[in-house]
Automatic annotation (TrEMBL):
<feature type="signal peptide">
    <location>
        <begin position="1"/>
        <end position="24"/>
    </location>
</feature>
<dbReference type="InterPro" id="IPR011990">
    <property type="entry name" value="TPR-like_helical_dom_sf"/>
</dbReference>
<keyword id="KW-0732">Signal</keyword>
<protein>
    <recommendedName>
        <fullName>Sel1 repeat family protein</fullName>
    </recommendedName>
</protein>
Length: 182
Protein backbone atom coordinates (compact mmCIF):
# COMPACT_ATOMS: atom_id res chain seq x y z
CA UNK A 1 0.00 0.00 0.00
CA UNK A 2 2.79 2.41 0.86
CA UNK A 3 4.44 1.76 -2.52
CA UNK A 4 1.20 2.61 -4.36
CA UNK A 5 0.96 5.85 -2.34
CA UNK A 6 4.59 6.73 -3.18
CA UNK A 7 3.96 6.07 -6.87
CA UNK A 8 0.87 8.26 -6.71
CA UNK A 9 2.82 11.13 -5.14
CA UNK A 10 5.66 10.82 -7.62
CA UNK A 11 3.18 10.85 -10.52
CA UNK A 12 1.43 13.99 -9.28
CA UNK A 13 3.86 16.47 -10.90
CA UNK A 14 3.55 14.62 -14.21
CA UNK A 15 -0.24 14.72 -14.03
CA UNK A 16 -0.18 18.44 -13.25
CA UNK A 17 2.23 19.08 -16.11
CA UNK A 18 0.10 17.05 -18.51
CA UNK A 19 -3.01 18.92 -17.37
CA UNK A 20 -1.28 22.23 -17.99
CA UNK A 21 -0.24 21.11 -21.48
CA UNK A 22 -3.77 19.98 -22.28
CA UNK A 23 -5.12 23.27 -20.92
CA UNK A 24 -2.65 25.28 -23.01
CA UNK A 25 -3.49 23.28 -26.14
CA UNK A 26 -7.21 23.73 -25.52
CA UNK A 27 -6.79 27.46 -24.95
CA UNK A 28 -4.75 27.71 -28.16
CA UNK A 29 -7.59 26.03 -30.05
CA UNK A 30 -10.10 28.43 -28.45
CA UNK A 31 -8.06 31.44 -29.53
CA UNK A 32 -7.81 30.12 -33.09
CA UNK A 33 -11.58 29.54 -33.19
CA UNK A 34 -12.31 32.97 -31.75
CA UNK A 35 -9.98 34.66 -34.26
CA UNK A 36 -11.81 32.88 -37.09
CA UNK A 37 -15.20 34.00 -35.71
CA UNK A 38 -13.90 37.56 -35.45
CA UNK A 39 -12.54 37.55 -39.00
CA UNK A 40 -15.73 36.13 -40.51
CA UNK A 41 -18.05 38.58 -38.71
CA UNK A 42 -16.17 41.87 -38.35
CA UNK A 43 -17.32 43.40 -41.66
CA UNK A 44 -20.99 42.67 -40.96
CA UNK A 45 -20.56 43.92 -37.39
CA UNK A 46 -19.11 47.20 -38.64
CA UNK A 47 -22.06 47.45 -41.05
CA UNK A 48 -24.45 47.29 -38.08
CA UNK A 49 -25.63 43.67 -38.06
CA UNK A 50 -26.64 42.92 -34.44
CA UNK A 51 -25.96 39.18 -34.60
CA UNK A 52 -22.50 39.78 -36.09
CA UNK A 53 -21.79 42.41 -33.42
CA UNK A 54 -22.74 39.84 -30.78
CA UNK A 55 -20.45 37.23 -32.35
CA UNK A 56 -17.54 39.69 -32.45
CA UNK A 57 -18.17 40.67 -28.82
CA UNK A 58 -18.37 37.02 -27.81
CA UNK A 59 -15.16 36.19 -29.68
CA UNK A 60 -13.27 39.00 -27.93
CA UNK A 61 -14.62 38.15 -24.49
CA UNK A 62 -13.02 38.27 -22.13
CA UNK A 63 -9.60 39.17 -20.86
CA UNK A 64 -8.47 38.14 -17.42
CA UNK A 65 -6.53 41.40 -17.19
CA UNK A 66 -9.42 43.37 -18.71
CA UNK A 67 -7.86 44.69 -21.88
CA UNK A 68 -4.52 43.28 -22.99
CA UNK A 69 -3.92 40.66 -25.65
CA UNK A 70 -6.42 39.14 -28.10
CA UNK A 71 -9.18 38.89 -25.52
CA UNK A 72 -10.24 42.39 -24.59
CA UNK A 73 -13.16 42.92 -22.21
CA UNK A 74 -13.72 46.64 -22.92
CA UNK A 75 -13.71 46.08 -26.70
CA UNK A 76 -15.92 43.02 -26.32
CA UNK A 77 -18.42 45.03 -24.28
CA UNK A 78 -18.41 47.77 -26.91
CA UNK A 79 -19.59 45.33 -29.58
CA UNK A 80 -22.10 43.74 -27.24
CA UNK A 81 -23.50 47.19 -26.42
CA UNK A 82 -24.06 47.86 -30.12
CA UNK A 83 -25.97 44.59 -30.47
CA UNK A 84 -27.93 45.09 -27.23
CA UNK A 85 -28.80 48.61 -28.39
CA UNK A 86 -30.66 46.91 -31.25
CA UNK A 87 -32.57 44.76 -28.73
CA UNK A 88 -30.50 41.65 -29.44
CA UNK A 89 -31.29 39.70 -26.25
CA UNK A 90 -28.26 37.34 -26.27
CA UNK A 91 -25.99 40.42 -26.16
CA UNK A 92 -27.92 41.84 -23.20
CA UNK A 93 -27.60 38.46 -21.48
CA UNK A 94 -23.87 38.38 -22.01
CA UNK A 95 -23.50 41.95 -20.73
CA UNK A 96 -25.32 40.92 -17.56
CA UNK A 97 -22.98 38.00 -17.07
CA UNK A 98 -19.87 40.10 -17.69
CA UNK A 99 -20.94 42.81 -15.24
CA UNK A 100 -21.81 40.11 -12.70
CA UNK A 101 -18.18 38.92 -12.95
CA UNK A 102 -18.71 35.78 -15.03
CA UNK A 103 -16.30 36.59 -17.85
CA UNK A 104 -15.10 33.11 -18.79
CA UNK A 105 -17.45 30.78 -20.61
CA UNK A 106 -16.99 27.27 -21.94
CA UNK A 107 -14.20 24.82 -21.24
CA UNK A 108 -11.37 27.25 -20.58
CA UNK A 109 -9.67 25.77 -17.57
CA UNK A 110 -6.56 27.96 -17.55
CA UNK A 111 -8.57 31.18 -17.96
CA UNK A 112 -11.02 30.13 -15.22
CA UNK A 113 -8.12 29.56 -12.81
CA UNK A 114 -6.53 32.87 -13.78
CA UNK A 115 -9.84 34.71 -13.33
CA UNK A 116 -10.30 33.23 -9.88
CA UNK A 117 -6.82 34.36 -8.93
CA UNK A 118 -7.09 37.83 -10.48
CA UNK A 119 -10.77 38.46 -9.78
CA UNK A 120 -12.95 40.51 -12.06
CA UNK A 121 -14.63 43.90 -12.02
CA UNK A 122 -18.34 43.91 -11.30
CA UNK A 123 -21.32 46.19 -11.13
CA UNK A 124 -24.17 44.06 -9.80
CA UNK A 125 -27.04 46.54 -10.23
CA UNK A 126 -26.10 47.06 -13.88
CA UNK A 127 -25.68 43.30 -14.35
CA UNK A 128 -29.16 42.71 -12.92
CA UNK A 129 -30.73 45.30 -15.22
CA UNK A 130 -29.07 43.83 -18.33
CA UNK A 131 -30.18 40.35 -17.32
CA UNK A 132 -33.78 41.55 -16.93
CA UNK A 133 -33.59 43.22 -20.36
CA UNK A 134 -32.35 39.92 -21.82
CA UNK A 135 -35.17 38.06 -20.11
CA UNK A 136 -37.71 40.49 -21.60
CA UNK A 137 -36.18 39.67 -24.99
CA UNK A 138 -36.76 35.95 -24.55
CA UNK A 139 -33.61 34.78 -22.78
CA UNK A 140 -35.28 32.83 -19.95
CA UNK A 141 -31.97 31.70 -18.44
CA UNK A 142 -31.08 35.37 -17.92
CA UNK A 143 -34.09 35.71 -15.60
CA UNK A 144 -32.88 32.80 -13.49
CA UNK A 145 -29.45 34.40 -13.19
CA UNK A 146 -31.04 37.75 -12.29
CA UNK A 147 -33.09 36.08 -9.56
CA UNK A 148 -29.93 34.57 -8.06
CA UNK A 149 -28.11 37.90 -8.33
CA UNK A 150 -30.97 39.75 -6.60
CA UNK A 151 -30.30 37.85 -3.37
CA UNK A 152 -26.77 39.29 -3.24
CA UNK A 153 -27.82 42.92 -3.69
CA UNK A 154 -28.06 45.37 -0.82
CA UNK A 155 -31.20 47.43 -0.37
CA UNK A 156 -29.70 50.45 -2.16
CA UNK A 157 -28.37 48.25 -4.97
CA UNK A 158 -31.83 46.72 -5.42
CA UNK A 159 -33.36 50.18 -5.73
CA UNK A 160 -30.78 51.18 -8.34
CA UNK A 161 -31.07 47.88 -10.22
CA UNK A 162 -34.85 48.06 -10.34
CA UNK A 163 -34.78 51.69 -11.54
CA UNK A 164 -32.48 50.74 -14.43
CA UNK A 165 -34.39 47.56 -15.26
CA UNK A 166 -37.70 49.44 -15.40
CA UNK A 167 -36.29 52.34 -17.43
CA UNK A 168 -36.63 54.98 -14.69
CA UNK A 169 -32.86 55.46 -14.70
CA UNK A 170 -30.52 55.16 -17.68
CA UNK A 171 -28.84 51.80 -18.10
CA UNK A 172 -25.11 52.28 -18.79
CA UNK A 173 -23.46 49.88 -21.16
CA UNK A 174 -19.84 50.52 -22.14
CA UNK A 175 -16.97 49.45 -19.94
CA UNK A 176 -15.96 53.03 -19.19
CA UNK A 177 -19.51 53.93 -18.15
CA UNK A 178 -19.97 50.88 -15.94
CA UNK A 179 -16.58 49.86 -14.53
CA UNK A 180 -13.73 52.23 -15.31
CA UNK A 181 -15.50 55.32 -14.00
CA UNK A 182 -17.34 53.47 -11.23
Amino acid sequence: MRRVYQLGLSALPLLLLAGGCVGAATEGANIAKDKAVLASNIDDARAGDAEAQYKVGDALCCSVNEGHGFYDTPESVGWLCKAAGQDYAPAAHMLGEIYAGDVVSGVRVLRRVAQRLAGSSTNLPVAYAWLRRAEAGGETEAGETADQLWTNLSRSQRYEAEAMAEGHQSLPCTWDEVIASG
